[in-house]
Design goal:
The chain has about 230 residues and is an alpha+beta fold. The protein is built from eight helices and five strands, in the order αααααββαβαββα. The longest helix is centred in the first third of the chain and has 44 residues, at about 50-90.
């Protein structure tokens, strides 16, 4: 049994060389170690252009590795969001009435997307008198909140928060709005969250528009039968 007085075994140059020959990635994947190994000796005060170029190349490689990692993480996040939306849409397709759709929007959709409020606002029409998500809006309301835009992402406008989200509006910080068309009636699909970073200007809206179009068709399917 070793005692505290025994020295830790040391590796000689031949053993270190054998390890590196067997596992060359140790050197290749460590930019700083690789730089030290290949750096030539030079006299003091002499500019080594090869060394400068090498350092620049190493810095660029580090930057590329960081960019690649960011792209991979973004792709994974996008796939996760896509899966969430597809799952949510499939769940919405199971409804058999406008009331059931309203309940699913309030529970399943908000939970799947990680948002706090979902609203479907239809100008001049209230297909569900006691609806939680599918509600009526005043004539011209969609134009007031969206102008000529099809969608708008970003911070919640405090002056419109109550009209869009009711009593919960004061707590909402970011939102995604998409214009809807209910066979000639203007409407808006609104998602809001307390997280101010969840919806931001410049985010891609392809999946959001897909979800909005699916909800639009489901509402049209059932609103005339309610």
């Amino acid at each position: 049994m070793p005692t505290s007085t025994e020295e830790t075994p040391t590796l000689d140059a031949a053993q270190i060389r054998a390890i590196l020959m067997e596992h060359p990635d140790i050197v290749r994947e460590d930019a700083e170690l690789f730089s030290l190994i290949i750096a030539p000796s030079s006299d003091e005060g002499v500019v080594d252009l090869a060394s400068v170029a090498r350092e620049k190349l190493i810095a660029e490689l580090r930057q590329l590795k960081a960019i690649n990692s960011s792209i991979v993480e973004t792709a994974r996040a996008n796939l996760a969001i896509q899966s969430q939306i597809h799952t949510a849409v499939l769940a919405l397709l199971e409804v058999d009435s406008l009331q059931a759709l309203d309940r699913k929007l309030a529970s399943r959709l908000t939970g799947a997307l990680g948002v706090d409020v979902c609203r479907i606002l239809i100008e001049g029409h209230a297909p569900l008198p006691d609806g939680e998500c599918i509600l009526a809006a005043a004539e011209g309301f969609v134009g007031d909140v969206l102008g000529e835009k099809v969608e708008r992402l970003g911070l919640v406008d405090p002056e419109r928060a109550h009209e869009l989200y009711g009593q919960q509006g004061a707590r909402m910080r970011s939102q995604a709005l998409v214009r809807l068309d209910f066979q000639g009636r203007d409407g808006v699909f609104a998602l809001a969250a307390r997280d101010p970073q969840l919806f931001q200007f410049g985010q891609g809206t392809e999946l959001l528009n897909f979800l909005a179009r699916a909800v639009e068709r489901l509402v049209i399917q059932w609103m005339h039968q309610s």
